[in-house]
Specification:
Strand content: 15-25%
Helix content: 40-55%
Radius of gyration: 21 Å
Shape: elongated
Distance between the termini: 45 Å
Largest sheet: 6 strands, antiparallel
C-alpha cells in the first residue's frame, strides 16, 4: 500500500516559502538558522525554489518570494466559474452603494476571500486581512455565515469541532447553540448578518450563491461602517439589494 504521509521535502519547501513571505527577505544563512538545517541543505532548497521561480535573489544577495504565486493565484481564481460571473456584479454592488462588496468561497470548511471591491465611500479606508486568498472561519463573516447556513446542523457541528468558535471581536458568536440558532434564522430570512463580528466598526450583509441543485458555490457580501449601515440600512434597505445581486449571479451561472 502506498504511503499516505506527505513528502517531507515538499512540506519543508513550503514552510521555507511561507517563512519568506513573513520575513519579507532573508539570506540563506538566516533560513538555515530558522529551520535548523545545514547550510548546504538550505542552499539546495533555495536553488531549487529559485530555478522554478518560486523565490528570487535580490541584488543584495537576499531572497524573497517571486511573482509566480501571483500569476498562479490569479489563474486559479479565473478557473472558478463563480468568480468570472460574480466579479463584475461585485464591482457594480460596490459602485452602487459606495461600500465594500466581496466574494467568498468555501475550501476545507474555511472561507477563502476571492474578491473585495471598494466603493467611493471607502476608497481611503483600510481593513486588515481583506486581500484575495485570505482564509477565515466561516462563522465570523457575512459571506461565511451565508455559506455555513446551507449546511445541515450536523455538518456545522463537524466544522465547529474542527476549527472551534474563536472570537475575532467581542461580538463574534462563540457558543455552538447560539450559532445553530443564528443559522436557522439565516435560513428563514435568506440573508446573513455580521454585526461587527469579524471587524470592529464594520457591518456585513451576505447571501449564498447556489447552483440549480442548491449546492452552495460561494457567498457575496456588502460591508460598511455602522455610521452608514445603521439599523434601517442594515436590516431593511440593503438586504434586498444584496439578494438582488445574488439572484443575478445565480441566473448568469445557469445560462
Amino acid at each position: 500500500m502506498a504511503s499516505t504521509q506527505p513528502l517531507k521535502s515538499l512540506c519543508r519547501a513550503n514552510r521555507i516559502v511561507q517563512r519568506l513571505i513573513e520575513l519579507g527577505t532573508a539570506s540563506v544563512s538566516e533560513l538555515a538558522d530558522e529551520f535548523d538545517m545545514p547550510l548546504s541543505t538550505t542552499y539546495e532548497y533555495v536553488n531549487t525554489l529559485e530555478k522554478i521561480d518560486y523565490i528570487r535573489k535580490q541584488s543584495d544577495g537576499r531572497y524573497c518570494v517571486g511573482s509566480a504565486f501571483l500569476e498562479m493565484g490569479n489563474q486559479a481564481r479565473r478557473n472558478h466559474a463563480v468568480y468570472n460571473v460574480a466579479e463584475p456584479e461585485i464591482r457594480r454592488l460596490a459602485e452602487e452603494t459606495g461600500e465594500f462588496a466581496g466574494l467568498m468561497i468555501e475550501e476545507d470548511d474555511l472561507g477563502v476571500l476571492f474578491s473585495m471591491k471598494k466603493g467611493d465611500k471607502v476608497k481611503r479606508l483600510k481593513v486588515n486581512r481583506t486581500y484575495p486568498g485570505v482564509k477565515t472561519r466561516l462563522h465570523t463573516t457575512a459571506f461565511g455565515k451565508a455559506i455555513l447556513a446551507q449546511l445541515s446542523d450536523a455538518e456545522i457541528r463537524d466544522v465547529v469541532e474542527q476549527y472551534g468558535l474563536h472570537p475575532r471581536t467581542e461580538n463574534t458568536i462563540t457558543q455552538l447553540d447560539s450559532l445553530l440558532e443564528e443559522m436557522e434564522r439565516t435560513r428563514e430570512r435568506g440573508v446573513a448578518f455580521d454585526d461587527q463580528e469579524c471587524f470592529e466598526g464594520m457591518r456585513g450583509i451576505g447571501v449564498p450563491i447556489t447552483d440549480r441543485s442548491d449546492t452552495v458555490l460561494a457567498g457575496i457580501a456588502l460591508y460598511g461602517p455602522p455610521t452608514r449601515l445603521d439599523d434601517e440600512a442594515f436590516f431593511d434597505e440593503y438586504p434586498s439589494l444584496v439578494q438582488e445581486y445574488g439572484n443575478v449571479i445565480r441566473g448568469n451561472l445557469e445560462y
